[in-house]
Amino acid sequence: MRRHAGNEEPELYLDGDQPTIYRKRKIRWTSVLKWGALALAIILIIMFIGGYLWLKTKESEMRVPGVAESLDPTRKGEPITTLVMGVDKGSVPGEEDSVRADIIMLVSVDPDSDRSAVISIPRDTRCMIPGQNDFMKINAAYALGGPELMIETVRGFTGLDINHFVVIDFEGFKHIVDAVGGVPMHIDVAINDKYAGDVPAGDVVLSGEQALALVRARHDVTAVPAGDLDRVRNQREFLQAMLSTISRQRNPFKIKRLVDVAAENIKTDLTFMEMLSLGRELQSGDDGVKMVTAPGDVKVIGGAWYYIVDMDGFRELLTTFEGESEITEDESETSTGEAAKAQIKVMVLNGAGKTGLASRVAGELEKVGFIGINTGNSESRYTKTTVYYAGDNSSKAGVVAADLTGVKEPLLEESDEITSEFNADVVVVLGSDYKES
């Protein structure tokens, strides 16, 4: 019934058509939560599928056609071996077309225990490379045939199955380090290498540039007195620290950046999850990760400097590497340390005609551990820098040649006559090919 102003009678709705009265409806939270949870589940599934497809796309970018077929299948109950190679793609002036493996490591993980081991093969190791007619340095295999030939070469040299491979580009891997926010490490002695860079001592978080300096340094007589062999040790320890750091990542934004950078700079048959698993395995446990270098010494053969592996000791090492017995820590001494360099009598002659060159090079050699170096001028001009040594001093000649930074591969020649004339173990005659930095 509707009432009106004045004397009007109220209006009656006899047909029952009464005005609608609106009441506030109660929200059914159970229904809201149910549909909200369903929507969230759908969103998460879509994100998971999208992320999985994105990750698989990134993994496909790391594959190298044909290499997977050259790997050995894994066998139940046997250690899984991964060949890790660090390659330098033209970062050194004058070597833009040279792509050789600067790091060669075998990483063994026993799936049935917590045992893992890393064995390093020095890059100058003398061996036969399939398809070649003579002995060569093992790192040349990568330049000749990429990861496939390197896998075949290492398999033939060691007799081990190679189940997986990882290739890391040197210039690119510093971006990987930066992507995870740096790699924590303890550095016993500060590195000041004029060619590689500087790394502070103590507990530090290495930036990409510092990490690159660490794995390259070999000219700081205080920090790396054993030269290449100390560098190999630093490389192993850094690899362990880097993989350990990556395996602990939880920040999704860092993980995405890491995956992007890794896809650009790593070639491997492993998935990202397998690489993370490898990183976790290499974290030090109760027994730690055993790290060793193939035993041997440097020697000059046919005018070239090689690392000659002690095959008897190496076979014994490989037996333990395959998991048949406990591998021992690397405590091997090297003949290329500071004390050993100080015992080498060196004469430097200027055969290039550049005023003061012999004195400057002698000064550089003394900075890395050699002492009492005599200098002079050669009676004739030399086009190629030549290192002369007496018959029993080929290893000493190799040590000196390795520290001649101005020439890539000097000639090495045996000459008792020349070394006797100057009363020296090694006589260096600098040629016009010697380039000062």
What would you say about this model in short?
With 437 residues, this protein is of the alpha/beta class. The chain contains 12 helices and 19 strands. It has a 6-stranded mixed sheet with strand order 11-6-1-2-3-12, with helices on both faces. A 5-stranded mixed sheet has the order 16-15-19-17-18.
What does the largest sheet look like?
6 strands, mixed
Radius of gyration: 33 Å
Strand content: 15-25%
What is the chains' assembly state?
single chain
What CATH first level of the largest domain would be assigned?
Answer: Alpha Beta
* Average pLDDT figure: 79
Count of strand segments: 19
Fourth-tier CATH superfamily name of the largest domain: LCP protein
Neighbour order of strands in the largest sheet? 11-6-1-2-3-12
Named CATH topology of the largest domain: Aminopeptidase
Structural class call reads alpha/beta
